[in-house]
Amino acid sequence: QVQLVESGGGLVQAGGSLRLSCAASGTILTITNMAWYRQAPGKQRELVAGINDGGSANYADSVKGRFTISRDNAKNTVYLQMNSLKPEDTGVYLCCVRATDWRSPLRDYWGQGTQVTVSS
Prior knowledge:
The chain has about 120 residues and is mostly beta strands. About 0% of the residues lie in helices and about 60% in strands.
């Protein structure tokens, strides 16, 4: 089993910054992709940023140039540095890790989410 613990969310003014962290623990054998999604009320969950095991990252068009995703493989942790935040960035940010453990095949594990609120 794999558990994800997210942290770093909060309330920030427009133009400010936040850094989200997501640490994976448990009977992990391999982690491939790690990603951050967000969901606002009445909207579909969307991919914000993803990073593969080779370090290649991709971003939603709306956050390119403002957000940076990174990972620390030794700590099984993925980060999302969010700069120049806008009110439209407000939502619940969820960590997703694609991993295997000793019993399960490759599957996606989700964190419970951390709230990010950007005030104008």
